[in-house]
Amino acid sequence: MKYIRKMFTFLGGAVTAVALLVFLLIGPLPWNNTSASFKNIDQHFRYGSIGGESTNGIPYWIWRVLPTMFSDKLSAPNYTAFGFMQEEGQDLPIGFAKSRTNGIDVITQNCATCHVGKVRTRDTSKPQLISGMPGHNVNLQAYIQFLREVSSDPRFTSSQLLPYIDAASGGLNPIERLLYRFVAIPRTQEALSIQGAALSFMDHQTPYGPGRVDTFTPYKTLRFNEQVQFIKDEELAGIADFPPIWAQGSREGLQLHWDGNNDSIDERNKSAALALVQPSSINFSSIHRVRDWLLDLPPPAYPFPVDVKLASEGEAVYKKSCAECHAFGARKTGTVEPISKILTDEGRLNSYTTSLSSNQYSLFSEINYRGEDQRFTHFRKTNGYANLPLDGVWLRAPYLHNGSVPSMWDLLNKSTVRPAVFYRGNDLYDPEKLGFVSNVAEEDGQSYFKYDTSLPGNGNGGHDYGTDLSEGSKLALIEFLKTF
Amino acid sequence: MLFMHPRELSSSSSPSLVYRWRKLIRVILVMSSLFFLLVFPHPGHALSDREPASEHSVLFDSAGSPPILDSSLLKGNSFESSYWIWVVLPRLFPEYLTGPGGYLSLGFAWRAGDEVPIGISKIQPTRFTQSSQRLDCLGCHQATSLKTSNLIPTPHDPVNVQSAFTHQAYESFLRRCAEDPRFDAEYLLPAIRYSLPLNWLAEQQYRYSLIPAARKSFLKHAT
Predict the structure, then answer these.
(1) Tens digits of per-residue pLDDT, A350-384?
(2) Shortest distance, CA B150 to any CA of chain A (angstroms)
(3) Taking a C-beta distance cutoff of 8 angstroms, is the pair A101, A33 a contact?
(4) Residue B21 to chain A, least CA–CA distance (Å)
(5) Tens digit of pLDDT for each residue in A268-300?
(6) Around Cβ B45, how many Cβ atoms within 10 Å?
(7) SS3 state of residue B45
(8) What span, in angstroms and rounded, lies between the C-alpha atoms of A376 and A363?
(9) Which one of A16, A238, A396, B101 is most buried, by most CB atoms within 10 A?
(10) Which residue from B minimizes the CA distance to A222?
(11) Pairwise CA distance, residues A367 & A374, whole Å
């Protein structure tokens, strides 16, 4: 009896010791969570986290080795293959943040993914990277398609990924290795597969190309599980240009988004963030820090010489032909122009539906920040596109909501003479036409995206305002717009 | 014996053993009480079924909800459940809807900006209870007026006008969801977690109390 009692005591002690050891090793993991944050606000905008670590993050080492392991699917064995911009000295491309959750580092994305762009003023100059500018060279769809493809690739297993991870990391510690083998890799593969299935509608859409995305269909299928087979074709042609996000303070109260469906900057910001985070995982303080900075962030000044005399002639043309809809404080600026008047492509307008808005009204319900209820209440279905202010317009090419008109010169011509086909993604600026070079298909081994205006959602018709001006007036107007 | 001081016990019982048992039982009673207090919902305070509407509504007078629309009359047929379970059902069981559009496909009218459609009342959460929802009188006594295909249908006459909403279709949808073997915490909780951060206690509330209660409520009038 004495020996049995001693045996049970020993066993009990051993079990307790093992449990304590496991608790000490794994228990602290959730308490070491971090969210990438930087003191410099521009750096924070580019590399800081806006949340989503626990819900949308991809484990860092998986993300890191994907371009190497699946280089057969890419034009370059790194993320610049998708147009993401890599700054010197940085581990991650712009738009990506590295944080820590439950014991492992994870990668999330932030606003800079779509809202940092680049421009070259000369053939030989280094591209200038500009925060707040539309990311006209970023092919987000290509990145999403890559993740869809790798998740269904039979190589996406622990046994095949771990050797690549070991080579890239120099070897994981035993706890991390176990986490990657049994949790991170299988769950990432599962999550990317589910996401990929929900995004299957992309296979039937007009290709987005760089600088554009279908804003709302992913929302419908990924977040609200709308069945792809029931989404009407007319809703699937809503691929829209990335907009600039500078000078947001002057936009408060204006109808925002291309179709003017929301007049709240905060709600619009959170809505955009939901492409990357969830209501339950958003980092409010980070989002608000970025928001406060963007309120006053000015657009960059036009870098080329301006003919001041010609520009002053253009000011008169602008006041007569454009200001009513585009000048800050003007009667129609920030209001919706009915589609029956503006006559531009309806795809983006049709993609936003009342059904979607009914789902949006429960987003952020019962969530408060700084004592304020965050629930979405501002979304409305409209019947046209919003008249936008033109600050920094020189950097916002291509033009119209779908980026179907390559330059301001083309926009001031009738739609019948606008380019039916052109190329997007070139960062070399054309100061004469006021837009990016768009007639070059390939350069130095890089192919640019062929934009076909005959495809659904790509129509370049409408907005015929100013097309009846004389050539001299058009040139003067363009000169004046350079001063914005 | 539980309330006897250890010194009063007979010499054949070990005083320290009994004292430990009493202490253990007291701890169990306190923990159980806390568990039931925190995990199982109490009937939360009920707000009026709908806040006084804007000038666009003809449903309310300036004093607020008129008595004839008090949904306590519907208590038995109101399909009351946790609000967030109700929210995620169209997303998790779209095959049981009559068409695309979530609850709009069942004919509900929805005032732009409102969290719930006309005919549904949301009871706000309290410190110890989750939010809940129930069908109210406006569920059946509403009419829709579709002005253009781009606007959310707007109600203009609550009584005696044929409405797009049918109680039977709504009841059928909820019943089919509740009968589905996936109507459990494993399937519902991830969808709820998308919208609302849930701590461990809240998850246990859903798992052991709110989801079974919702199933019971939706199947109450199943035939």
Answers:
(1) 999 999 999 999 999 999 999 999 999 999 999 99
(2) 6
(3) yes
(4) 21
(5) 999 999 999 999 999 999 999 999 999 999 999
(6) 9
(7) coil
(8) 6
(9) A238
(10) B91
(11) 6
Contact B174, B89 (CB under 8 A): yes
One-letter amino acid at A209 equals G
Nearest C-alpha neighbor of A311 from the set A484, A164, A146, A152:
A484
Contact at CB, A382 and B101, closer than 8 angstroms = no
Contact criterion met (CB below 8 Å) for A399 and A408: yes
Q: Which residue has the tokens 């203009």?
A: B156
Closest CA to A62 of A148, A166, A175: A166
Kindly list the residues from chain A whose CB atom is less than 8 angstroms away from the CB atom of residue B125: 366
Q: Within 13 Å and on the Cβ side, how many CA atoms surround A113? A: 22
Interface test with A, best of B195, B200, B203, B206 (most A CBs within 10 A): B195
Residues in chain A: 484
By three-state DSSP, how is residue B207 classified?
helix
Q: CA–CA separation, A470 vs A476, rounded Å?
A: 10
Give how far Cα B40 sits from Cα of A223, A483, B68, B202, B205, Å.
29, 65, 32, 10, 6
Q: Which two tokens stand for residue B186?
A: 């494993």
Q: Which residues of chain A have pLDDT under 70?
A: 22-31
pLDDT of residue B69: 41
Instruction: Give yes or no for a contact between B160 and B123, defined as CB atoms under 8 angstroms apart.
Output: no
CA B4 to chain centre: 46
Distances A12 to A6, A27, B4, B21, B171 between C-alpha atoms, Å = 10, 21, 32, 21, 54
Which tokens is B208 given? Answer: 């052991």
pTM: 0.86
